[in-house]
C-alpha cells in the first residue's frame, strides 16, 4: 500500500517520532502531541473531501462541534457511558453531514464555500447561546472514557497521548484505504469528469453526499477526541478560525495528498505555538504566510517535495 | 392593539437590518456576478469602515464628516487591494476564496492590534439622537434614518444601473462578459469602477452601522454569513435579488431573534435551504448567457 518511499518516510518520521517522544516529554508537549493528533484527523477529513470529493469546505469545524457537544450531552446529561457517547457523536456527525450535505451538494464551488461557512457559524451561534452547555464560556469538568476494562487509564497523560496518536494514524490509514477502494476510485472519476461518469449511470450526487457524510463523521470524531482531551466543550471548537486553520493545514501541506494534511497539521501547531510565544497576534502571520503559499506554491509542501524527488532520481 | 405595535416595531427593525444587508450584499453580489471574483474580505472592508468611522468621528468630533470620509478611505484601501491582489486572481475561484480568506485572519489581528478586543460603539449624531413615538413606543430616529438611506441607495443604484452608461456596461458584463469585451467595451475599467463602488457601499454600511452594532474584531465574519446567504438566495449579480434577499433575511433574522432566540440561526438556515431547494440559482437570478 505504501510503496512510495517519500510518503513512508514522512509517516515514519512523524508518527514514529511522536510515539518515541511521547514517553520522554513533559505534560506540555504531550498536550501538543495530542493537539496535533486531533488536528491531523480533522485536516484529513477536510483533505479527503477536497482532493477526492472535489468540495472545498470552510465550515468543517461545525462537525467537530457536533461531535464534541454530542459526547458531552450523552455522557454527562443523559447518563450514557462515554464510550457509547463517542459512537453516538460519530453517528451524529454522519447525520449532520447527510442533512447539511443534501442541501449543500446542490450548489457548486463558490456557493458551496459560502454555505458551509454559514452553516458552521450557525452551529457556533447556537452553541454560544445554549445555556445547558454554558453558552459562550462552555462547560468544563466533564468525563473521560473509562478504559479500565482494557487495563488502561485514559486519564493518564501518556496513555491518552498514545491513544490519540494511534487514532490519528488509523484515520490516515482509513482514508488511504478509502481512496483506493472502489468508492474512492469512483470519486476520483467524478472529479475528473463528472458529466462523463454520470452518463455512464453513476449516481454522482449520492457519491458526493456519501463522501461528505464520511468526512463529517470523522470530523465529529476529532471533536469528540477534543472534548475528551479538555474534558469540556466550548463553542470555539466550531468557530470559523478552526475551519480556516484546517483548510490552511491542508493547502500548506499539500491538498489532495492525504499526507499533506498530516504535514500541515504538524507545521501549523508548531507555527502557532512558536509565534504565539512571541506575540498574541499570530493569526495575521498565519494569514499572510497562507496567502504567500497559495500564490507561490499552491501544491503545498508535499507537492514541492514530490517534485524535488521526482527530478532527482528514477521514479520509485 | 399590542400585537400590531409589536409587529410594527419588528417590521421597522427588520427593515433597517435589511437595508444594511442590502448595501453589503449588493457590492459582493455584483462584484461576483461581474468580475467573477468572490471576495470573502468584502465585509472586512465594512469592518474597516466602522472602525475608521468611529475614529474619524472622534477625531473630527463629527458624525457627518466621518460618514463622508470613511467610505472614501475604505474605497482607497479596497482599490489598492484590488490592484495589488484581487485583479490577478480572476478566474480561479478556489484561489480567490483562499486568499481572501487569509485576509480575514489578517483583518482580525489588525483590528485587535489597533483597537483591542473590547467592543466599541460610535456616537449617533446630535440631529438623530432622538426617538419618535411610533407603534406605542419611542422608536430611535437613527434607525428610521438608516431605512431612509437604504431606500435612497436602492433607488440610486437602480437608476445608475438602468440609466447610465456604466450601468449598461455592468449589466452587459454580468450577462455575458466575453461578449461585452468583444464589443470593445473597456470591461477592465468597468470592473475596477464597479469594485470601487461596491467597496464604497461596504464602507458606508460600516459607518452607518457603527452606532447600532458593537464594533469589534470578528464583526466582519459575523455579518459575512448573512451577507453571503443574501447573495446566494437573491442570486448573484442581481440588484433586485440583493434587495429581495436582504429583505427576506433581514426579516427572518429580526423576527427569529425575537420569537425563537435559540433557534434564530436555524431559521436563517431553513430559509436558505427552502430557497435553494426551490430555486438553486437564487430568487431573482440574472439570466446569463454564459
In a nutshell, what does this entry contain?
The complex is a heterodimer of chains A (316) and B (290). Chain A has 316 residues and is an all-alpha fold.
Q: Which stretches of chain B are low in confidence, meaning pLDDT under 50 for 5 or more residues running?
A: none
Rg of chain A (CA only): 19 Å
How far apart are the first and last residues' alpha carbons of chain A, in Å?
Answer: 14 Å
Structural class of chain A: mainly alpha
Mass-distribution shape of chain B? globular
Largest interface comes to:
A-B, 40 and 40 residues
What is the H-and-E element order of chain A?
Answer: HHHHHHHHHHHHH
- Cα distance spanning the termini of chain B: 52 Å
- What share of residues are in beta strands of chain A? under 5%
Helix content of chain A: over 70%
Q: What's the helix count of chain A?
A: 13
Main beta-sheet annotation of chain A: none
Note the beta-strand portion of chain B: under 5%
Counted beta strands of chain A: 0
Strand order of the largest sheet of chain B: 1-2
User: What is the H-and-E element order of chain B?
Assistant: HHHHEEHHHHHHH
What is the topology?
The complex is a heterodimer of chains A (316) and B (290).
Chain A: H1 5-24, H2 27-52, H3 61-77, H4 82-104, H5 109-129, H6 157-180, H7 182-192, H8 194-199, H9 204-230, H10 240-253, H11 259-278, H12 283-296, H13 300-312
Helix pairs in contact in A: 1-6, 1-11, 2-6, 2-9, 2-10, 2-11, 3-4, 3-5, 3-9, 4-9, 6-7, 7-9, 10-11, 10-13, 11-13
Chain B: H1 2-35, H2 42-60, H3 63-84, H4 93-115, E1 131-134, E2 137-140, H5 141-163, H6 165-175, H7 177-182, H8 187-209, H9 219-234, H10 239-259, H11 264-278
Antiparallel strand pairs in B: 1-2
Helix pairs in contact in B: 1-5, 1-6, 1-8, 1-9, 1-10, 2-3, 2-8, 2-9, 3-8, 5-6, 6-8, 9-10, 9-11, 10-11
Q: Which terms would index this structure?
A:
heterodimer, A: 316 residues, mainly alpha, 13 helices, 0% strand, B: 290 residues, 11 helices
